[in-house]
Design brief:
Length: 120
């Protein structure tokens, strides 16, 4: 799984793309180095994001939302993986049980669970 980039990493990428150093960007915008380092763990205030967006010629909302989708995607992927693992456990447990119900109910349940797992 890919590493989630911090807000700071995205600003560094934008600075590299623009051909300026982080230090030059800080000087141009009047941002202290301690403030910029905080972006490794937290996003700045929206007012600062608007300044950064203008400086890098990107949309402020895109910059503000940076990382959110990635985190959600990772959380969703983790949830789906966990669901798949649990579903496979249920299939294994069901397969080991005798089928006391007529008409192969157990086999039908297993088939439905396998169909869910194959959703791709």
């Amino acid at each position: 799984m890919d590493k989630v980039l911090s807000f700071y990493d995205e600003i560094k990428r934008l600075a590299d793309q623009k051909g300026v150093s982080i230090l030059k960007m800080q000087e141009d915008l009047g941002i202290s180095s301690s403030t910029a380092r905080k972006w490794k763990k937290h996003k700045p205030k929206y007012e600062t994001i608007k300044k950064l967006a203008s400086y890098f010629s990107v949309k402020a909302d895109d910059l503000y939302n940076f990382g959110d989708e990635t985190k959600q995607d990772i959380e969703l992927e983790n949830a789906l993986t966990s669901f798949d693992e649990r579903t496979e456990e249920i299939i294994h447990l069901l397969a080991a049980l005798p089928d006391p119900v007529k008409d192969g109910v157990k086999d039908s349940i297993i088939a439905q669970l396998k169909l869910i797992l194959s959703r791709g």
